[in-house]
Specification:
This protein is mainly β and 264 residues long. It contains 1 helix and 18 strands.
Length: 264
Amino acid sequence: MFNPNELVLEKIRSVEEYDSATGELIGIYTQIESPSLKTAAEGTPVTDAMGSEITTFYKAQTGTFEFSNSLFSLDLAASQFGTTKEIASSENKIIRPVSETIAVGADHTAVLKYVPVGTSGAEIKYVKVINENNEFGATYEVSATAGEGKFTLDAAAKTITLPDNVTGKVFVRYDTESTNAVKISKTTDSVPKVRSLLIHVIFHSVCETDTVYAGTISIPRAQIDPSSVELNFTSDGKHGASYKLQKPYCRDDAKLFDIIVSED
């Protein structure tokens, strides 16, 4: 009979997040650091006439699951923002901003890397010259015809034509469409949805450490805490997340989670 007690916990292999209503996989997080599963309850002490505590009744039991992902996760960020990751395609192009510094050719043109999009004829509104000292100079405005302080734009050809006296480099900021991009957005009215979690754990036998046991922690209802989301945009920064665990309010089943260890 397989009936272990004390085990060596090697690591959490992954955290899987599912739509609690449909069972659809939302995200997988595999670089787990500092995982922590906690439970809490509200205690009401019962005292006698002298104020001595007789017992304590506990209610409103909840839990939290916290971890840091070693890598920045777009799926996890989307879940924290209460949104979904938008994936670009030929039918659903994502508009993204571009900033370029471009050398002006002998013909006084600057060729963009991408096709700009926006208001027809004014996909790029301004161009700023960069002089030989790498300093910003004059600003030029888009125009349908050439003129002083103006530039013309052929968006389809990705070409800017500047006045004859412009040399050196120009700084250009514009928008372009991409079929190879993803996007997540945070809005002020978005709230993280209730999910279910499946946490995969690797255990070892205390006596035979080469013996590996498969462990899972199943959490039926978990909602990411949006009150304090911090994204560390550094190479060694961690992506932290905290889930609040609650039982289904209208069900008699008061389960917060299951911990299952299997020999096979």
